[in-house]
Amino acid sequence: MSFPEKELIYVKRRDCSTQVEILRKMASGQAPPISTDPRLLFEIARVNKLLMHPGWPDLQGDAAEQVNAELNFGRMRGMLSNNRGLKLAAEITEALDAGQIPHLHLKGPLQQIRLYGTPLFKPSGDVDILVAPKDRIAAGKILEEAGFKPTEAELGSWWVHFLGERHFEAPDQPIFVDLHHSVQQPGLPRPRNLVGFLHRAVRQSVANSTLPVPSPPDMCLIAAITLCKAFLSHEPAGSVALDMIKAFESLELDERDQLEQLARQTGLSETLDFAMALATSSIGQDGLPPRSHELLADRSAETVRDMVFQPWKKGLSFPRRREILASLCGRDLWRLVRESNRAFLSNAFLNVIARTRKPVGEVGETKR
């Protein structure tokens, strides 16, 4: 799904290159310069989910007073949302464990604890759960019995069949649960043996609960998938690129070998390589020099950085969607044909909904 247009009103017609460089240095652990437009820095950080980063510069002056107040409020709201999400995640695991439904938690505060040592690194309004395709109906029933309400009925069939997820609203809380039975969207290659992610899940202790989460190599693969999805949809993804780097850095040497093996087995080698090229080129990190990739040929690190942090900027030459899909499918022609057909049918199905249910401009406006 595309990033909500209303979230980009302030930054859409502005060049945020100076502010992006500040965010890049902040994310890579360098001391950023602070001579900047405070409002523009705030807005570009907000859409890239970096407002809660501990390296945020100390903005001074009259123009920064309002921004600093909003920054503190945004951080407080993010903390409340993440804490609610952790509590809800534990309740969901208790219910799914009781129903003997294998599952794991994707992204969110649990991932932040593993990558950054805190569940309060960036705001998260969703609880993302992965189950096997054969268990999606049973898992949905368990959630409904626990008081969760299905949402987005109008786009429900499209979400289920093409994006591989259903959305539920938590009872009495402004939090959504995304129940996934897939981890990839049309236009990108799906991983082979999805249930392998569930079989390799590990348990993470949080408060008085232990919750299933991806193994360290799988966490890196899922971060790669998430970054490639954002790139395909032209969504601002500065924090996702940072997740990619941190996920890779967190691996032991034997886990890095395992990552390469799993990437080959799941057909995600090309996805992993592309995500690493995006992350290292856009942020950079000691010990992880920028990687090259055919999809980014003849594009400077500054251009890649803009594609990741401010993809709306005029003049950016993004690879075409079919070029991305072909590259990430590698040499598997039949896989390319299957995924191309899936992308075509997804767009056709969504267009039918647009014509019959809502004006075209409203279709796709979701909770996100």
UniProtKB/TrEMBL annotation:
Q: Which InterPro entries match?
A: NTP_transf_5
Which Pfam families does the protein's record reference? NTP_transf_5
Q: What is this protein called?
A: Nucleotidyltransferase family protein
